[in-house]
Amino acid sequence: METLAAIRWCVPTLILVVALLIQPSVSIYCEEDDCYDLLGVTQTANSSEIKKAYYKLSLKHHPDKNPDPESKKLFVKVANAYEILKDEATREQYDYAIAHPEEVFYNTARYYHAYYGHKTDTRAVLVGLILVVSGFQYLNQWTRYNQAIDMVKKTPAYKNKLKALELERTGGVTNKKKGNKQINKKMEEDLSKELELDIKGAEKPSIWELFGIRLLLLPYTLGKLLLWYGCWFWRYQVKKAPYSWEDASYLTRRSLGVPFQSWRYVDESRKDDLIERRLWEKPNMESYVAEMRKESKRRR
């Protein structure tokens, strides 16, 4: 019972303390002043009366007309009050705050949304977000690429290629001096630049692969895709022409579910064999799958 009585006493006290600490929502507009009083108009004044009152006071208290510091402060307040009351939306919010001063959080939220929410251009935010995402994407691609290059340079195959290139450059003569490490290191860097390192899954970054560039070129990409589908339909569905090697390669890769980057590393003779099987046709694909299963069981 004592605990319940203590809670009943503390709750109203806490509410009173919070109410005293929180700034009245009306004061966020014109501070301790009333916006209508600052302009010398009533709450029922129309827009033309508010505008007329503002121009009259601005001529009187403008710093160019009146050098008095107090007059300058009053001019700032008058200008702020006019900015609030000249707009129908903010004036309506201010009138609501006057009529409902107890709704502190609601009135404060409406004020900051009206004065700061609309000042941020959505298009600018969207462009900024795209640039940030593209920047992170580019940095991530370079990080992955450099890590892959470092791993490749530690492999015996890369060192053998580097050694062979060094022998080719020096005419079969190698520098066996151990004290000239800086020169050897520089030569290694120069030679490594000549080696074409094509690493699967970690290709050299390109700006054309960035999200922002792809989004910018989206209309062109869609147009090109529609044109490609149109030509495909006309050539192979209407005219019934035989598939070209490139198009047959595309159909084969799609039937096998092989990504383009992986298909690039398939041996050319293997590609020709798969294309000749015409795997995009269902019976041929079923026969190929059955053959692969038998091959897999035989190897076990």
Automatic annotation (TrEMBL):
The keyword Ribonucleoprotein does not apply. Transmembrane segments: none annotated. InterPro entries: DnaJ_domain (IPR001623), DnaJ_domain_CS (IPR018253), DNAJC25-like (IPR044632), J_dom_sf (IPR036869). Keywords: Chaperone, Endoplasmic reticulum, Glycoprotein, Membrane, Signal, Transmembrane, Transmembrane helix. It is found in: Endoplasmic reticulum membrane. Residues 1-27 form the signal peptide. CDD domains: DnaJ. May play a role in protein folding in the endoplasmic reticulum. This is J domain-containing protein. It comes from Erythranthe guttata (Yellow monkey flower). The lineage of its organism: Eukaryota, Viridiplantae, Streptophyta, Embryophyta, Tracheophyta.
